[in-house]
Hints:
Helices cover 11% and strands 63% of the residues. By secondary structure, the protein is mainly β. The protein has an 8-stranded antiparallel beta barrel with strand order 1-3-5-6-7-8-9-10. The longest helix is centred in the N-terminal third of the chain and has 18 residues, at 2-19. It starts with a helix and ends in a 5-residue tail after the last strand. The relative contact order is 0.18. Mean pLDDT is 90; it is low at 4-19.
Amino acid sequence: MKQRTIWVLMFSLALASSSAAQTKTSGTISCAKPDPAYSVDAGDRAGHALGLMKSACTWTTPMQIEGVATKDGFDVVTSDRSGAKVRANGYHFSNMANGDKIFVRFSGTDTMKDGKPDTSAGTWSYTGGTGKFKGIAGKGTYNGKADASGNMVNEIEGDYTLPAPK
Length: 166
């Protein structure tokens, strides 16, 4: 009887740990030139400015989360630019193909070339979601480059977990 109880306990623990397993995901997102975009000179040295902007985004290669694809959304970003280097922090909102939403916080470093965005790299983490994605957790990285039209195209990689169904 004791051995059977131990096997049942071990099986239950294995199921619980597998339901919390992280799942890898990746995709490509293209975010348009910011609109609106505000920039204020910090006043302490030449080329130092703080900014606030919003960009519409489209998933050109959707991420798949539990079989549901990301569609579109937007970024809201604060920035601290000094010359060609930009520290960016912000939030991303994505619509999912099933109508649910996911929310992400990100932080990274961008570069400028000839006064225009050039590259982008950083980390991100989920802050929440709706419907099927309520309670989503996970994190990842992004790396990107501006395309010829000025859109920032980022390759997204990471992992996620969802709470066990109740």
